[in-house]
C-alpha cells in the first residue's frame, strides 16, 4: 500500500475515532507515528485537517470536506478490490449503527451465519437508541425505525415491526386488564424513546380510530428498558414484536387489546447520502432483508 493511500486511511480513522491514540491502537501504530503521518498529509494538502486540543481532536471545516471526498475514494477502491478478487470475499471493517435492543435481540443472533460466510470481515456494532449521524460517526449502514427524514439517503426497507401493548401478569392482577384503549388512562404507562415525543397512542379496529393520551409514569431512554420495566410489573408498555417476543412466549408478558391495531413501524437499512456504499454494507443489507423476510 502506498504511503499516501495509507495516510488517507489513517486520516479517516483518526477522524472517526476523534483521537490519535485510539486510531493508533486500531492501526497498530505508536501515537507519535500517527501524529507525524497526519502532519505530513496536512503539509501535502496545504491545509490543517484537525484542530488539536488536550481533550479532543476535531475536524476543521477543510478537514470535514476532505473526509467526505476521501471516503468516497476509499469506498470506490474497496469496491474495485472486491470486484477484481471475484470471490465474493468481504474484508475490512463494517460499522453498523443500530438500536441497542434490536441489536441484542434480532441482529446479533443472526450474525454467525454472515460472519462465517465472510471470515475476513470485521463488524463494529455502534449500539445506541439515538439516531447516529452516519457521516460524522463513520457509520456504513444504520438500521432505523419509522419515517426517514433524510430523503437523500440511500435506504432499503427491511420489513415492518408490528406494535403491541404488553404488561406482566403480576401488574394485571394488581391493576386490572384494560378492555378498551380508553381504559389506559387509569393505568401506569411505561414510555420509551420511541414514544417519548408522542402525545398519544392511536388504535384502529373495524375502520374506527381511537387515540388516547400517553402520560407515562415511568420514562426511559433505552428501548430494552421498556421490556424489562414491563416484566418487573411497572406498568403497560408499547413495543415492537421483536422487543418482547421471548417474554410473550414464556408468559412473562401478556399482550393487551389484541383486537385493536397500533400503527406498524417500518425498518430500513440506511446508507449515508453522498458516499459510495461499501460492498460489505450492501451485502449486509441484503442478508438482513432475507433474514427478516423469512421471519
Fill in the keyword field for this structure.
295 residues, alpha/beta, Arc Repressor Mutant, subunit A, D-Maltodextrin-Binding Protein, domain 2, five-stranded mixed sheet, 10 helices
Describe the structure.
With 295 residues, the chain is α/β, with parallel strands linked by helices. The chain contains 10 helices and 15 strands. The protein has a 5-stranded mixed sheet with strand order 4-3-5-15-6. Strands 11-8-12-7-13 form a 5-stranded mixed sheet. A 3-stranded antiparallel sheet has the order 10-9-14, with no helix packed on it. A hairpin with a 2-residue loop joins strand 9 and strand 10. It starts with a helix and ends with a helix.
* Percent range for β-strand residues: 15-25%
**Strand order within the widest sheet?**
4-3-5-15-6
Structural class: alpha/beta
Secondary structure tally: strands: 15
Keywords: DNA-binding, Transcription, Transcription regulation
Family: Belongs to the LysR transcriptional regulatory family.
InterPro entries: LysR-type_TF_proteobact-type (IPR058163), LysR_HTH_N (IPR000847), LysR_subst-bd (IPR005119), WH-like_DNA-bd_sf (IPR036388), WH_DNA-bd_sf (IPR036390)
Protein name: Transcriptional regulator
